Amino acid sequence: MSTTVPKKITLRTADNHEFEVDEAVAMELGTVKTFFDENPDATDEPIPLPNVSSKCLSTIIEYCKFHLSLRARGNDSSSAEEEGKVYDEELIKTHDNESLVELILAVNYLNIKDMLDTLNQGVADRIKNKSVEYVRRFFGIENDYTPEEEAEIRAQYEWAFEGVDPDDD
Amino acid sequence: MDELPENLVWEILGRIRKTGDRNSVSLACKRLYELDNEQRISLRVGCGLDPANDALASLCNRFPNLTRIEITYSGWMSKLGKQMDDQGLSILSGYCPLLSDLTLSYCTFITDMGLRYLASCSKLSALKLNFTPRITGCGILSLVVGCRSLTILHLIRCLNVNSVEWLEYLGKLETLEDLSIKNCRAIGEGDLIKLGPSWRKLKRLEFEVDANYRYMKVYDRLAVDRWQRQWIPCENMQELSLVNCIISPGRGLACVLGKCRNLEKIHLDMCVGVRDSDI
């Protein structure tokens, strides 16, 4: 094997698309890395990713490539950090609630910690300063309180937090 | 949400800090309510608690993992119902095993008895009392004897904290890192010597004398002279703030100033008697 040509790894998504990526990018995916760590003699067969759609995977690969290149730049860390933040914000912005959740599930399955943190924070930010109804719609959940139960909890919030300054942040 | 596994919902919810947001989330459904109960680590309540002790008990019961509690009765009037009293502090110590950071502001009904209940909070590391006029030095002493992990103690306008045995006790423990004594009329500059070996550990000291009372104090001259003989290194001191202090040249607090080699921030306001050579 030549050392100048980086080794390629092929990933196959749930909808049967194949992605050929550099080994370094593939190793960003914790699940893939673990597979190779445990099977050092694995053949060049494509790796099946049954829980990931091609749409999600291409977003994920872009993300990993971008953050790898930022890390490679190393020492001018403050501008790299800033660029990383801008990229992450843009990533969140371009996804609606539903596709964000889909992406989270894929990233969770592939075990990419930094990206998962970013996405989780994105979801948390979306339900800040929102009504109960918004939270229900966001997660697609049914209200399983009886009206009496709900009234009781609402009453508790009224007496408990009345007359107290809002949180600092 | 059914598609999101429990650990991810937990992760996302954990990033929501503001009380109002957490309240909304917990009202969405019972599953989120239970998650919120587990995750809620800080509570800030005040005048709305009525009847105070029962309300506090039901909150502490609902949120078993509270580590930070702030109870503030600023703006309280008697028509808002009785304030929390010593019984409330007994509830905190009984229901909140993880309590580490407690702030009590304008809790005018709590007494030394209540602080004795708090003494059993073994995890308590930060206590801030702001205008709790019934608390005396005895109460603080029983608390510092019980709470051995206390590293932050702030006393603001605790007008009746007179004796300073507690300060001497803390001095010997060598655990305190952040001490703030502001406008506690009965504690004078000279009392700080009681900190003894703890000067070495202290990272932050804030001492403010009530400007209207500073000239009325009788100084324990002997104590002030002892400062010169006592070698007090303050190598951990990063932040020192002295307001309205009377500093005898070359004595008392003046000896401390020269020994803070790693000081990052100093604030001297209306301090009489500091010489350039002391700094």
TrEMBL record, chain A:
Record keywords, A-Z: Ubl conjugation pathway
Similarity comment text for this entry: Belongs to the SKP1 family.
Subunit description: Part of a SCF (SKP1-cullin-F-box) protein ligase complex.
SKP1 component POZ domain residues: 7-68
One Gene Ontology biological process: protein ubiquitination
Matching Pfam families: Skp1, Skp1_POZ
InterPro entries with a match to the protein in the record: SKP1, SKP1-like, SKP1-like_dim_sf, SKP1/BTB/POZ_sf, Skp1_comp_dimer, Skp1_comp_POZ
Function comment: Involved in ubiquitination and subsequent proteasomal degradation of target proteins. Together with CUL1, RBX1 and a F-box protein, it forms a SCF E3 ubiquitin ligase complex. The functional specificity of this complex depends on the type of F-box protein. In the SCF complex, it serves as an adapter that links the F-box protein to CUL1.
SUPFAM superfamilies (alphabetical): POZ domain, Skp1 dimerisation domain-like
UniProt protein name: SKP1-like protein
SKP1 component dimerisation domain location: 113-160
Automatic annotation (TrEMBL), chain B:
Any one Gene Ontology BP term: SCF-dependent proteasomal ubiquitin-dependent protein catabolic process
Superkingdom of origin: Eukaryota
InterPro entries according to UniProt: COI1_F-box, Leu-rich_rpt_Cys-con_subtyp, LRR_dom_sf
Annotated ranges, domain COI1 F-box: 3-39
A single cellular component GO annotation: SCF ubiquitin ligase complex
CDD domains named among the record's database cross-references: F-box_AtTIR1-like
SMART domains cross-referenced by the UniProt entry: LRR_CC
PANTHER family cross-referenced by the UniProt entry: F-BOX_LRR-REPEAT PROTEIN 14, PARTNER OF PAIRED, ISOFORM B-RELATED
Designated name of the protein: COI1 F-box domain-containing protein
